[in-house]
Amino acid sequence: MNYDQLCSKICEIEDKYDLFQLTFNHVAYWKYARYYVYRVLLHKFFGIHTPWLENKKENYFIKHPHFSKKFTDPVFQNESSSISNDVLMFTFNRRSRQGETYVSSVTDEISLHLELSNCVVEVPYNGGYYQPVPIKNIKYFDPWEDIGIDKDQKTYTPISRGLLRRQLLQIFEKEFEISFSPEEKNILNTNINYFIMYRQDLMENYHKVIQKVNPKLVLLTTSYIGEWVVLIELLKELKIPSIEILHGYVDDNYLPYNYKKLGMNDAQPDYIFVYSKLQKDQVNWGIPKDRIRVTGYPEGEKRSLELLGNPLKRSKKRITFISNMAQVMEKYLNALAENINLEEFEILFKLHPNEYDCWKEIYNNLSRHVQVIDHNENDIHYYLANSDIVVGINSTALFEATFYPVDIYILQEDSYQNMKLLFQSGAATLVSDSPALFSGIYENSAGKTSNNDIIFRKNSIENVNSEIKSILGERD
Question: What is the reported pTM?
Answer without folding.
Answer: 0.89
